[in-house]
Structure formats: C-alpha cells, structure tokens
Amino acid sequence: MSFYQKLFASKYDSFMTDLEKEFHPLRQELISHLEGKILDVGSGTGVNFEHFNENSEVIAVEPSPYMLEKALKKLPKKANITTYNLSVTDPKLDDVIKENSLDYIVSTLVLCTIPDNELALKKFFQWLKPTGKLIIIEHIHAGEKPRRILQNIINPVWKVIGDGCHLNRDTDLLIKEAGFIVEEEGYFKRSLRFYQGIFFVKK
Ligand SMILES: C[S@@+](CC[C@H](N)C(=O)[O-])C[C@H]1O[C@@H](n2cnc3c(N)ncnc32)[C@H](O)[C@@H]1O
Fold first, then answer.
1. Tens-place pLDDT, residues 20-56
2. Measuring from atom 17 of ligand 1, which residue has the nearest CA?
3. Whole-angstrom Cα distance, residue 203 to residue 190?
4. What is the pLDDT of residue 4?
5. Dihedral sign, CA of 142, 143, 145, 147?
6. Considering the domain 2-201 in this protein, what is its CATH number?
7. Band of the pLDDT at 5, cuts 50, 70, 90?
8. 11, burial (CB in 10 Å: exposed 0-12, middle 13-18, buried 19+)
C-alpha cells in the first residue's frame, strides 16, 4: 500500500496539472475570503494552502506522510496553518477540534477517498459552529446508467492506483443526507462528473 501511496503523492500535482487550470480559480473563489477557524480536510500536496488568507487559522489534516511532506513545502508565510498527520476520522483529532468550534470546513477531492465518508460527514456536522459552512469540490458517480456501471466495474482497480479514491460515490446526496443544507451547488462535467457546493448546518 505504501508503494502506491508514495507513487500517488509523487505524481499527484503533475497528474492534476490540466484540471488545476480550472480548479485554481474555483479554489480561489471558494476559499480566499474565508476567515476564522478552518479545517482543510485531506490537504494532499497542499494545493489549497496558497488560497487561505491571513485572517484564517487553518487545521490541515492529511494521513499520507508522502503527501504531507509535499504540503509542508507549500506552507505560505501569510496564513496560519497547522498540519496534522492524521485521518480526519481519527479520534485523536477530537482533542484538537471541539464540537461547534469551526467556522468552515474545506473538503476538496477528499470525500471520494476517506474510507468511512459517512463518519467524516457526521464529524464535520458536529465540529462546525451553528453558523459554520462546509465548502466542497468533489468528483461523483456519473449520471448516466452506462457510465455508472462502467465506473462500478473500474472502481476496484482505480481504488488501488488512486490510493483509495472511489469513482462511484454519490457524495452530493450523502452530504444532504448527513443534514447539510445547500447554500449553492453546481455540477460540471470533465473527464469525470464534478460537484461543487457551499452548505450550512441546521442545528
Ligand atoms: C485526491 S487527494 C486531494 C488533495 C487536496 N485536498 C486537493 O484538493 O487536491 C485526496 C487526499 O485525501 C487524503 N485522505 C485519504 N483518506 C483520508 C482521511 N481518512 N482523512 C483525511 N484525508 C484523507 C489522501 O491522503 C489524499 O491526500
């Protein structure tokens, strides 16, 4: 497993180069104005780091040491970012993040990978303040039946190559089932079907 983790981390930024041309402005739009206490879930190689402003206090959680090593090189001077080499569902994180304490949770291209994504969403809900918001960019299961079936077939191999990434999660629906309310959402199609949204919590 660690072989693929290492390979995935080493190739991630170059693999994402084309998509990032589109995601970079989207990340900027969704993240750059956020202020307060923020969780960056599964920071990966630290692609979101440059977008956090000086009025944010960011907890960046990343379980892969290979990804984290790359992210640490992208730590900007202006933002206040503390990194943790943990899974977001690790109970140790409850010592760091208290219930109703976060202003924002930023989860970009991560809910496809977190093994227990439903537990993660439950924790997101608990950790956010009643005024807090969840910011999402994600790829989700295709809309058309033939592509859905194809993605189900490819998924076991994809998961190995993509270090746990699933092609066939209906994350857009899961977020709403977890109790989040849509403030804005959008779907867009590239090589995969993508979903972007801002959600608030109703406590
Ligand atoms: C596709 S990368 C996305 C990285 C980054 N957020 C981005 O927008 O490019 C998915 C990341 O989620 C991380 N991850 C996997 N399981 C996780 C978990 N249980 N908790 C937090 N992060 C996790 C992976 O190690 C990987 O770095």
1. 999 999 999 999 999 999 999 999 999 999 999 999 9
2. 114
3. 35
4. 82
5. negative
6. 3.40.50.150
7. confident
8. exposed
pLDDT, mean over the chain: 96
For residue 195, give both structure tokens: 């979903």
Q: What angle do CA 172, 177, 183 make, to 5 degrees?
A: 60
Model pTM greater than 0.90? yes
Question: Ligand 1, closest atom to CA 27?
Answer: 8
CA–CA separation, 161 vs 174, rounded Å? Answer: 24
Question: Distance, CA 44 to ligand 1 centroid (Å)?
Answer: 5
Q: Average pLDDT for residues 87-106, to the nearest whole number?
A: 98
Probe ligand 1: pick from 30, 110, 117, 160, max atoms within 8 Å of CB?
Answer: 110
